[in-house]
Design a protein that fits this description.
Largest sheet: 4 strands, antiparallel
Oligomer: single chain
Distance between the termini: 134 Å
Strand content: under 5%
Helix content: 40-55%
Structural class: mainly alpha
Shape: extended
CATH topology of one domain: Double Stranded RNA Binding Domain
CATH class of one domain: Alpha Beta
Amino acid sequence: MASAVQSMRLCLRAASRRIATPASVAPRRQSLAIRNFSSTPFQRQPATQKDDVDELEDEIREIDEGEEVDPAEYERALAELERDPSFEKASRSQERAVNSMGDVEPDQELFNDEVDSDKFDEDDIMGLAHGKFEEFREFREYARIAAWQMPLLSSKDSIYPSEVAWLLMMIAELATPFEPPTAQEPLRFRYTSYMGEFHPAEKKVVVEFSPRDMPLDEAQQQKLRKLLGARWNPETDIAKMSCEQFEHQAQNKRYLGDLVTKLVAQAKDPTDMFEDVPLDTRHHTFKTKPKFPKEWRLTDERRKFLEDTRQKTLLLDQKKEEEGTLVIGAEKIQQHFAPVQPKTRIPEMAHVRLGQTLSAPPPRRHQHPTAIRR
């Protein structure tokens, strides 16, 4: 006879069993080792008569066929099960499954973790808060411009007739002549801003420079062009590089500055000047731009000939207009699109209709027009 405790344990054991996947349930094909030649046939190992599920069913059937359980013994068994950690864990999981019925399952493909984020040690704010502070810094920068630099464009003593004229005069007063970059400023950086809106391309920084502007001699400039490779444009002699692998623009700009410094230092290295390496320009497509032919240019003789031809055409049109044979396009178009006026019918008298000859009636179908019998 099985006790109530054993029956409860068997029930929990059956409830906590995992459903086997089809791959694990399907029996594996057992490979037989090839043995030496023998006259007896191969024999497989006999399969087990009962698996775990059949054994559990037999035990539960024995419990059901047993005697009735005493209520006191049943209460004592429940008290022992409550102290069992496995029973408590199973009851919690069952309660959680029952209470979560109808809830939306979490999306397993949703990626909420931050990329390349350091471990959070409770001594800093999260990356989302850093992005919000960066947005505040940009707003404050424009606020400082509006508070300190924009008032310089206005003058209280001057009164202009209109806002446009005032703006033009202020621009003329505060305009400064263009000054090209000096030899100490050979690098030109380009940034991208979306005015407070977050965009993945906002961190990208592009640098442009020409090897001629660098403090290098002719041989070092040629070596620098060879080191740049596909980033050098042979038509404009300008190198262009970009970086967006870091999170902030300042980091990408610093990386590009260090990279240009390394390239210049490598170009100044006299160990190997790459004199035996030809300058590769296969990455660039040279486009031929057609020029206006010299034969088609307007010369003085051609200009005089065109003026004479126009004068003769005007005289001919004037002569046709006097004769009334000139075709005016506007009048022809107006006549074409003008509505057609209905013609008034003249009434005919009776004697006019009687004087007209009547046409012969058409022949019948069974008679030929040329063979009519009398």
